[in-house]
Automatic annotation (TrEMBL):
Domain of life: Bacteria
Entries under SUPFAM superfamilies matching the protein: ADC synthase
Domain Chorismate-utilising enzyme C-terminal as annotated: residue spans: 131-382
Protein family: Belongs to the isochorismate synthase family.
Enzyme Commission number: 5.4.4.2
GO molecular function: isochorismate synthase activity
Reactions catalysed according to its record: chorismate = isochorismate
InterPro entries documented for this protein: ADC_synthase, Chorismate_C, IsoChor_synthase
One Pfam family from the record: Chorismate_bind
Keywords: Isomerase
Protein name in the entry: isochorismate synthase
Length: 393
């Protein structure tokens, strides 16, 4: 891979590059991902010009550099986007690394792309009913009361159609400015279509021999008149999050890993919402677990933040009762071996966009004390993370 010397005219605006990549899908077969890491201002793009690379498993430690996009269902294939072209936008600089002729002509294309007007976009009104979801929550509670499950995370999707052209670049940019602590992504693969998200949840990270994961659960609306430290949580929410932490600790136990640091739970802000979060870190050198990333990715997904406990029973319940395919919602995604780092995030607060239809996805953790109306409202709040931003632009 070579670093391209940028002369001063080769300045590509990243919003325009997003729209150019979407536009290119009409003519060429590419897979690509744009992303921004939490608390960073750097925007990344990688493009793969080969045939879509479907894999059933990944070995993170030996994998080439790229971006992984995995559906919720573990038995379905994941997509690996190879890093053939990699562009990084920092506040005042752009760096381009590329391999091969296709990359070079694609850079030319991005540079010369002229974006068009987007002024006619608007969402069509939709008629949403809560009945189906509330009965699913009721069934979930019954299953828990019958002792078959301890926790389960039923989810739903909501489709909203629109007129006009969606300005992907502007929308991504708005997510970046509204949600500085989220992992923001826009991913296209021929297998998945276009997905956009702003997730608060890290699944695994490996960097400088330090492994990290988090347990995130419990949801309330953010209240600007209250400090995060003063937030009160109900017993139900505290238990719900503790179950996710217990699930993670059980995964460590399965591989006999005893030395890990645990910080939390703490209240954290995620856009318009707040959650309880505990961080777990492991020194992979000291514990002699060089392959902890791959091992934990396999053990953790799907965690009880998005599926439930016991895992098998919760998976079967959701497959039988949810009544729709989650596809890439609550799967995971992120960079692999880029700059010596791998990070995979749970694909939450996301939507899929195709033709003139946006499909939103959200779920809520159900325990014995759940109230169907409240869980419904929670999924509405979660969907609003992205919907409100569409309405604001
Ligand atoms: C399932 C979702 O979020 C997860 C579930 C949460 C909860 O039940 O309180 C909170 C954060 C996430 O771990 C979602 O956003 O769709």
């Amino acid at each position: 891979m070579k670093q391209v010397d940028l002369n001063t005219d080769l300045i590509i605006d990243y919003q325009k590059a997003i729209n150019a990549c979407i536009n290119a899908l009409r003519n060429i077969n590419i897979n690509f991902a744009f992303w921004k890491e939490p608390k960073s201002s750097e925007i990344n793009l990688i493009v793969d010009f080969n045939q879509t690379n479907l894999i059933s498993d990944i070995d993170l430690e030996t994998s080439e550099s790229g971006f992984l996009f995995a559906p919720f269902n573990n038995s379905k294939e994941k997509v690996f986007i190879k890093r053939e072209l990699h562009i990084q936008w920092n506040s005042d600089a752009i760096s381009v690394n590329c391999e091969g002729k296709s990359s070079e002509s694609f850079i030319e294309y991005l540079h010369n792309f002229e974006d068009t007007e987007y002024n006619e976009f608007h969402l069509r009104p939709d008629t949403e009913t809560s009945d189906n979801y509330k009965s699913l929550v009721e069934e979930s509670v019954n299953e828990i009361k019958a002792g078959k499950l301890v926790k389960v995370v039923p989810s739903r999707s909501r489709k909203i159609t629109f007129d006009g052209r969606f300005n992907y670049g502007q929308y991504f940019n708005q997510l970046v400015s509204n949600y500085p602590t989220a992992f923001i992504s826009l991913t296209y693969t021929s297998k998945s279509g276009i997905w956009i998200g702003a997730t608060p949840e890290l699944l695994i990270q490996v960097e400088n021999d330090i492994f990290k994961t988090v347990s995130l659960a419990g949801t309330q609306s953010f209240n600007e008149n209250q400090t995060l430290a003063d937030t009160a949580w109900t017993q139900k929410e505290i238990e719900e999050q503790a179950l996710v932490s217990r699930y993670i600790i059980n995964c460590f136990k399965k591989i006999r890993l005893r030395e890990f640091d645990e910080h939390g739970p703490k209240t954290v802000k995620a856009g318009n919402l707040i959650h309880l979060k505990t961080e777990f870190t492991v020194n992979m050198k000291e514990t002699n677990f060089p392959e902890l990333g791959t091992t934990m990715l396999k053990l953790l997904h799907p965690t009880s933040a998005v599926c439930g406990m016991p895992l098998k029973a919760a998976e079967e319940f959701l497959l039988a009762k949810e009544g729709y395919d989650r596809e890439f919602y609550s799967g995971y995604l992120g960079p692999v071996n880029i700059g010596g780092r791998t990070a995979q995030f749970v694909n939450l607060r996301c939507f899929k966009i195709e033709d003139n239809c946006i499909t939103f996805f959200a779920g809520a953790g159900v325990t014995e004390d759940s109230n169907p109306e409240k869980e419904w409202e929670e999924t509405e709040l979660k969907m609003n993370t992205l919907l409100n931003v569409i309405k604001s632009i």
